Amino acid sequence: MALIELRNLHKSYGSVNALRDLTLDVPEGCLYGLLGPNGAGKTTAIRIMATLLSPDQGTVTIAGLDALDQPRAVRQALGYVAQEVAIDKILTGRELLQLQGDLYHLKKNVRDERIAELIDRLGMDDWIDRRCGTYSGGMRRRLDLAAGLLHRPKLLVLDEPTVGLDIESRSAIWDLLRRLVHQGTSVLLSSHYLEEVEALADRMAIIDAGTVIAEGSPDELKRRLGGDRVTLRVREFSDQEEAQRVSELIRQVSGVSQVVINRSQGYSLNLVVENEPVIARLRDCLLDVGLPVFALAQSRPSLDDVYLQATGRTLMDAELAVAGQRDVKQERRKAMR
Ligand SMILES: Nc1ncnc2c1ncn2[C@@H]1O[C@H](COP(=O)(O)OP(=O)(O)O)[C@@H](O)[C@H]1O
Ligand SMILES: [Mg+2]
Question: pTM for the full model?
Fold first, then answer.
């Protein structure tokens, strides 16, 4: 039995369809990654799992419990760590955890024992008695995690747990999550960082525009795509028709098993090729039709190729499309440093 079963979820905010027929099974005992660009519907799906939001349609089963009928029981089974937590700046971390324990009606001695254990496990000893207002992003995230774990849920759900963290704090959180799964807690996390899901997830789903577009282990998803990738940039195609015409020609080249038109950057072409020297034949083919090759790169398939295959754009470009003024590239570079 799956630990989380989401069936045909729909959720709209006014005219925005945040979830469209989202169906997902998350097995017990693994670290499950929900990957998707900003606006894909990750937070909406997670808030529904955490019983903080009701779907317009569909069913939600967590640990065998109907989340719509038994929200209290579900909240006992699940710890939720939100994307943005408003932490009271006046309280110390320890006081905040004590409050959290009281919310779950833990007896004082049990509560304080667990807090001590979490302080130790999450390495919070040095600063837990300082006011939260003085914490760094990484400290705050660890405190959020401790709060989510205090009632010992069998499932911890985290929404973008490392957004905005520096690389050190990020890898500290990754280590904590790995250890947690190793010790028997199931974890689901959302992320718009490919690298994060790739590094952590045993299984994953890619969600885009409110629905699941691919599901499996990261390796499975990549293997399903077949051979090596070749990204081919010729001079920019003038329009979709020209890109289409050239992609038909390239499809005829022996050793090319798939051609995807990448609409994001003036129509470049992404190819899947068999493991044989196909590059020379490609060059010849393009020379024949008078298209000089600007750039040609061969690589193993990545999760971004999985995303591109399903949506016709890269994850980065999906981010840019929703980001508007924000400089996502810069933000990512900063986050990955
Ligand atoms: N409270 C809200 N009111 C209106 N639209 C919302 C609200 N919350 C989310 N949305 C919209 O729903 C879509 C999915 O959002 P969200 O679930 O936050 O995605 P993600 O977490 O993947 O970035 C987006 O288009 C977003 O703008
Ligand atoms: Mg979100």
Answer: 0.81
